[in-house]
């Protein structure tokens, strides 16, 4: 099982036990990673996973603050929400793997190392939700590009002076205040499901032309390894 692999890594039993369990791990956690990439990932994540296990109380997760502007419903079903997010600092990493799932898993692991003490403060920074991924499409919104940005919202107490990442690939960025149109969906996120959700929200919005046509955000509220993830698609209103 996945837990057995993680336990083996945490106990320092080496790559042998990890290698014996690789088929189920690849299928359930990181299905698109090659074996050598996965060995490095599990080994590198041993300490962050241990730290996260000690600190990850769901009640202590901080939600990204926003102001609700509008809720659009039809026959009792929520179609979308219009929200305003304030200016804030995010830890961001750009990824460009062959498949979206591979990019978000590797990006998420790098951010987890930053959150779990691999930063200038030497402290566990705490989990904020959602973890977001910026995706891009062509102008016709018919296909995604490979380049994505995975981003972690820095907790309120760290906004003024964010800890410096040890990983030079992680950049601290300040994002401007933004109005988003958000629609919830569940399940895996890949190129097909994301394009489906983009087209669905575009059809629902009264004025989709008010939003950027080639840049969108996938907000993830659960671990990217989870099968029935809680996600949102965000359209970004033009400045």
TrEMBL record:
Question: Which Pfam families would you find in this protein's record?
Answer: SOUL
What domain of life? Eukaryota
Q: Extract one GO molecular function annotation from the record.
A: heme binding
Under the heading Gene3D superfamilies, the entry gives: Regulatory factor, effector binding domain
To which protein family does this belong? Belongs to the HEBP family.
**Protein known as:** Heme-binding protein 2
